Amino acid sequence: MTYTYEFSDFIGNIGVVILVGTFALLQFGKIDAKGFWYSFNNMVVAILLGINLYFKPNLSSIIIEVFWFALSIYGLVRYYKSRSQEHEEG
Fold this sequence. Notes:
Helix content: over 70%
Strand content: under 5%
Mean pLDDT: 95
Order of helices and strands: HHH
Largest sheet: none
Shape: elongated
Number of helices: 3
């Protein structure tokens, strides 16, 4: 079996770099897990890896990315709701 590196793999690898970078920033205390950038970056990762999976499908990975995307959207909505509550209180 031979592996052909294609443009979709490059897109997926950008997602991997963002994922690892985001995790490192979280561990180093540079971003907040409930903040905007954590959820936003994870959403971007899910999209980029989803593009790769569109061209090279793997059912288990597709399922993970669908949930990863949905939970990232949930995190972004929660972030914006908490910000709007802060503005109402402040």
